[in-house]
Amino acid sequence: MTPAVIDDTTLLAVLAPFAAAVVAPALTRWFKHNAAWPLALVPALIFLHFTGFIGPVSEGETFVAAKAWAPSYGVNFSVYVDGLSTLFALLISGIGTLIILYAGGYMKGHAQQGRFFSFLFLFMGSMLGLVLGNNLISLFIFWELTSVTSFLLIGFDNLRAASRRAALQALLVTGGGGLALLAAFILIISATGEIEMSVLLGSPDIIKDTGLYLPIFILVLGGAFTKSAQFPFHFWLPNAMEAPTPVSAYLHSATMVKAGVYLLMRMHPLLGDTVLWTTVLPLFGGVTLLVGTLLAVRQTDLKLMLAYTTVASLGLLVMLTGTSNEKALEGAVLYLLAHSLFKGGLFMVAGTIDHEAGTRDVTKLGGLRSAMPITFAAACLAALSMAGLPPFIGFIAKEVLYYGTWGWPGAGLAVTLTAVAGNALMLVIAAAVALKPFLGLKVETPKHAHEGPVLLIAGPVVLALTGLVLALMAHTTGELFVGPTLSSLTGEFTHVELHLLPTSVNAPLILSLITIGLGIVLFTQLDRLRGLIAAVLEAIGWGPDKGFDQFVSGVVGFSGRFSRLVQTGKMQTYMIVIFVFTAIAVLLPGYLTGSFPAMPEMPKYRFYEWGILFIAVLGLIAVLIAKTRLTAIVSLGIQGFAVALIFMMFGAPDLSFTQFMVETLSVVILALVMTRLNLMPSDHRAAPAALLTGIVACAVGLGLTLTLLAITQQPFDTRLSDFFAQFSRSIAHGRNIVNVIIVDFRGFDTLGEIAVVVLAGLCVLALIRVRTKPDKTVEASTTDAVQAQASEAR
């Protein structure tokens, strides 16, 4: 179906967070501790705007809107609204509203709260632009903006070294993946001639039919895997927990870390359902799922436990997307929705515990149920969804994904067993986060624990209850959200029918019971399991996180050594390098293509032409045999004078006069500079060095000669000459064409050249005016010698 064109309101919705970022600091100063309420209206209104698309996209409609951005390059600021982008836009704006409110309570009294709000809105706008982006280049720009804005948020507490390191690590990893994605988009545009995603999706096989599918696939995965923290790029995501908790909750629930998953889902109709796709994605996704959950079990920090399960959940989503099985894709969409809700809520719970009790260490928490009853209830509801228990949306997602993996004709058994193991470990973490801080004996905490204010508890409660409501309204959820999103992944309209409870005893139900039983057993052995995993990791020692530091250290070290190698501080070395590469640039293409110009026949010179040639050769010999540098400079002017005579001989007196002036000034200026530089009067280089420079000089001369011959042997295009001859009089009112060209047609170029000459002259003047300070050591030695001679005379 051809997308319908809509008005610019959706474009304004994407830009609204950027406008809010501008005014957020001022509003924070005006409203002081209540700024979160008016600021939250921006994402709330965006959420309401996108709710208007729910009905149409559920019926299979799609929409586009565009404004010219860089039309000469085919780049538009355009949006594409379908089921997938609508779901992401609702999550980004809806959860974003709760995050703004939560940040108002969490950052209350912080001196830089206004700046924090500004960064959050920039991040929100970048994510909206990414998921709604239709033009590939504008999509890439928003993709990189998410990396930049997340860098600002992760490194918000910039006085702490850990925050700076985490921010830099996230920027380098995701930024490097962004460059890979840019290369993929350039290949797509080159191979297909299309730059709009909506057009590409209209021809699903357009990329597969080209010979560039493999490099495009690899580059897209490079962007997606780094952004969504797939193994072995998973290490940056837990380190990003150095950011304030509102950032962590937003980053892990609905925004940046899911950008890679969004990209894979968006590109599924174009790249999916191939042997490569169904092999690589399930493999890396499955490994990431297991690595993430095992590392989560090892942690005792609430935020780190949740962060590693986010890595695991992203791996599960990639694994399911990689199957290209419709039921597994349905499970991926459901789990994407469920994860956004329960993970955002649990991160807010962890932040509230830290804010009110003063610690996030689960081994130092206990008995908070009576002090924080609302937070405890929200934690339990969100954890039940994370554990995949009824009656929550997480349970339905688990049932559907098991149905999809079990029935997958590929490596269905391996994928299913991986999902069971990963989900069981997620149940362990969900129980640990929701139960251990609140149950058991009351533990003394650094701060007197009490229930958080409404701004801190509103988010977890709303998200937890939303997960419950969506499950209770499973049929509506399937029709309005899951079905349209699944249609975007499959490329055709798909009807989805969901049920809260299984209609019969089947394989997915049995797998769910196994998952729950295994999770409960592992939870009872959590401390022993944590110690075992810690021992294994300690035995392994090295990991990707440490490898990142070694890589950065190696790059910095190599850069230093390479800089010392090429930046020697010697002008002679720099000039040799420049001329070597100049020779390569002018000689290598002709050698590789075999297109050197033919040597022209020797013309019949007149006696005065032979005289000019003799003067040029004489000047060359004078330069070569000169004993001093000053003599060589003066002799070099002979070459320029010979060229000036050639210009005059061919009827160009203006150019000839200019050449005479330039050569005269050059010799004078160089001679003046030579008198002020601390240089040896003559060149005392050894024979090997002189031979090297001679070879380089001959190579450059030969290359430039061949280039000039190649140019002169081409047919002369007179269009520019004819233009100047025709319009010099009528437009510029001048008879001297050369003067008209310099002053009128190339007036700004001439002004620039004059400016360069003036700057060079000022530099020369400054150099000439420098007075060399006498060496005090030499002066003292001379004084001592004079005094000694006087003594001997006496």
Low-confidence spans: pLDDT under 50, at least 5 residues? Answer: none
Distance between the termini: 114 Å
The amount of beta strand, in percent, is: under 5%
Q: Nearest-angstrom radius of gyration?
A: 36 Å
Overall pLDDT = 88
Largest sheet, spatial ordering of strands: 1-2-3
Question: By helix and strand content, what is the structural category?
Answer: mainly alpha
Number of helices: 32
GO biological process, one term: monoatomic ion transport
Domain NADH-Ubiquinone oxidoreductase (complex I) chain 5 N-terminal: 72-117
Domain NADH:quinone oxidoreductase/Mrp antiporter transmembrane: 134-416
Transmembrane segments: 12-31, 38-57, 77-104, 116-133, 168-192, 212-237, 274-297, 304-321, 333-353, 374-396, 408-433, 454-474, 505-523, 573-592, 607-626, 633-651, 657-677, 689-711, 750-768
Question: What would you say about this model in short?
Answer:
By secondary structure, this protein is mainly alpha-helical. Among the domains are: 320-524, no CATH class; 721-745, no CATH class. The chain has helices spanning 9-31, 36-51, 54-58, 83-106, 113-132, 136-154, 161-192, 197-201, 213-227, 236-239, 245-253, 259-271, 275-298, 302-323, 326-357, 373-387, 393-406, 412-435, 454-472, 474-490, 507-524, 526-540, 544-566, 571-593, 607-625, 629-649, 653-676, 687-712, 719-730, 737-745, 747-769, 776-793, and strands spanning 4-5, 63-70, 75-81.
Molecular structure report:
- Keywords: Antiport, Cell membrane, Ion transport, Membrane, Transmembrane, Transmembrane helix, Transport.
- One of its GO terms (cellular component) is plasma membrane.
- Its main location: membrane.
- The chain is mostly helical.
- It has 32 helices and three strands.
- Among the domains are: 205 residues, no CATH class; 25 residues, no CATH class.
- The protein has a three-stranded mixed beta sheet with strand order 1-2-3.
- Helix 4 runs parallel beside helix 15 and helix 17 runs antiparallel to helix 18.
- The chain starts with a strand and ends with a helix.
- The mean pLDDT is 88.
